[in-house]
Backbone:
C-alpha cells in the first residue's frame, strides 16, 4: 500500500483532538465496530453501558492540548502518509471520500464529506460519550467517524488480525460505508434489540463491508484534488489479504469463540468472519454499489 509522495494531504478532513477536552452530549454510541465490541463485552461479563464508556454526555476531564492539530502540523504530503500511521489514516480518509464524492456525482447525487476525529481516552459526540474501549465508530447524528489509533494494535493483539496498513484502511473504509448508508437514507436497522445472523443489524454491517470493498477496487484510480492523480498508487494482493484477514478477525463468531469459548449466532450483530470477508470481496470484485444490497 503506497501513496503518491508528492500529493498534498487534506488535513481538514481529520480533526485531531487527542489530549483535549471535548464538550458534547446525546444518548448512546452506535455503528461500526463499537456496538459489536460493547455487545460482546456486555454479554460475556455483564458490563453496563457506563462501564463500557457510554454515557449521556457532558464535559469530560482532559489532559493537555499538546497534541491538538498534530496532523495539521505533520501530515502534509503522501510522503508523510508512507512514513507515519496517523498521516496514513489522513490519506485513507482523503482517498475514501474522493471516491464517494465522484461516485455520488456520477449518480446525480451530492456527497457530504464527513470528518474523522482522532481521540484518545474519551470523546463526546452527538451520539453520546465513549471511551477508547468501544473501538472505531460512526455517529450518524453528527456525521463523524471516531477513531483512537490504539485500536489498530488491539486489532492485531486482541482480535488476531495479521495487521498491516490495509487492515487499517479497511476499518476506516467500513466506517465511511456507514456514512454512505446514512446519506442514502439509513437502511432498516432493528430498533427492538433483535440480533441474529439474519438480522437487519448484520445486514447493515455487511453492506458497509461491501462498500469498503467498492472503494478498494477504485482506490488506485481515483484522482486526488491536489495533483489530479491517484493518491493511493499501489495496492497489492497482499494488501487485500490483510483487509480480508481484518474483516474475518472482527466477525461475530471469531470474537465469541475467542472471548466466550462458544459461538451463539442468535446474538450476532455484525456477521460471521466468512460473511464479512465475502461481502468485502463482493464489493472489491464488482467495484459497484448495486451488488452490495444485503437486504435482498
Residues:
Amino acid at each position: 500500500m503506497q501513496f503518491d509522495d508528492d500529493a498534498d494531504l487534506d488535513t481538514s478532513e481529520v480533526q485531531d483532538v487527542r489530549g483535549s477536552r471535548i464538550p458534547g452530549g446525546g444518548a448512546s454510541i452506535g455503528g461500526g465496530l463499537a456496538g459489536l465490541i460493547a455487545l460482546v463485552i456486555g454479554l460475556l461479563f455483564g458490563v453496563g453501558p457506563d462501564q463500557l464508556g457510554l454515557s449521556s454526555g457532558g464535559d469530560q476531564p482532559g489532559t493537555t492540548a499538546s497534541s491538538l492539530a498534530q496532523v495539521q502540523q505533520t501530515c502534509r504530503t503522501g510522503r508523510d502518509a508512507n512514513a507515519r500511521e496517523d498521516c496514513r489514516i489522513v490519506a485513507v480518509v482523503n482517498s475514501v471520500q474522493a471516491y464517494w464524492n465522484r461516485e455520488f456525482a456520477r449518480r446525480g447525487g451530492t456527497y457530504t464529506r464527513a470528518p474523522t476525529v482522532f481521540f484518545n481516552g474519551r470523546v463526546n459526540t452527538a451520539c453520546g460519550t465513549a471511551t477508547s474501549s468501544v473501538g472505531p465508530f460512526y455517529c450518524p447524528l453528527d456525521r463523524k467517524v471516531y477513531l483512537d489509533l490504539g485500536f489498530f494494535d488491539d486489532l492485531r493483539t486482541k482480535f488476531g488480525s495479521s495487521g498491516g496498513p490495509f487492515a487499517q484502511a479497511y476499518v476506516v473504509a467500513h466506517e465511511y460505508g456507514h456514512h454512505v448508508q446514512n446519506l442514502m437514507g439509513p437502511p432498516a436497522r432493528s430498533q427492538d434489540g433483535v440480533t441474529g445472523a439474519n438480522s437487519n443489524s448484520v445486514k447493515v454491517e455487511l453492506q458497509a463491508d461491501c462498500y469498503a470493498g467498492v472503494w478498494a477496487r477504485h482506490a488506485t484510480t481515483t484522482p486526488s484534488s491536489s495533483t489530479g492523480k491517484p493518491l493511493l498508487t499501489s495496492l497489492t494482493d497482499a494488501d487485500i489479504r490483510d483487509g480480508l484477514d481484518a474483516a474475518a478477525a472482527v466477525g461475530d463468531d471469531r470474537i465469541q469463540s475467542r472471548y466466550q469459548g462458544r459461538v451463539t449466532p442468535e446474538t450476532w450483530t455484525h456477521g460471521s468472519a466468512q460473511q464479512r470477508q465475502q461481502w468485502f470481496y463482493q464489493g472489491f470484485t464488482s467495484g459497484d454499489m448495486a451488488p452490495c444490497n444485503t437486504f435482498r
In short: The first strand starts at residue 2 and ends at 3. The first helix runs from residue 32 to 45.
